[in-house]
């Protein structure tokens, strides 16, 4: 015994969503959020470069340790370049909005 459960939405119904919600997120707020995100990524990359530099200096000529530190520095620099280029692309796109 199933009943026909048709729901009718009217403008007076508080629980009925009939339109798309309006979100206040303009280019400036998006630019601020992305600036913070890319800034954090850049700061982490710089910290990793410093840590790997200290490891490289304290490796005392051990080829394994100095090679690992060198790879870490290279990977962090590549990550920093990718993050900065991504920020540039995003800022160009936001500037055209």
Give an overview of the whole structure.
The chain has 97 residues and is mainly α. It has one domain. The protein is 66% helix and 0% strand. It is built from two helices and no strands. α1 packs antiparallel against α2. The chain is elongated. The N and C termini lie far apart (55 Å). 4% of the residues are buried.
Low-confidence stretches: none
Helix content: 55-70%
Number of strands: 0
Give the SSE order as H and E letters.
HH
Mean pLDDT score: 81
Characterize the main sheet.
none
- Indicate the structural class: mainly alpha
Q: Give the domain tally.
A: 1
The number of helical segments is 2
* Beta-strand fraction estimate: under 5%
Features:
97 residues, mainly alpha, 2 helices, 0% strand
Break the fold down into its secondary structure elements and pairings:
Blueprint: H1 27-57, H2 63-95
Helix pairs in contact: 1-2
Give a concise summary.
The chain is an all-alpha fold and 97 residues long.
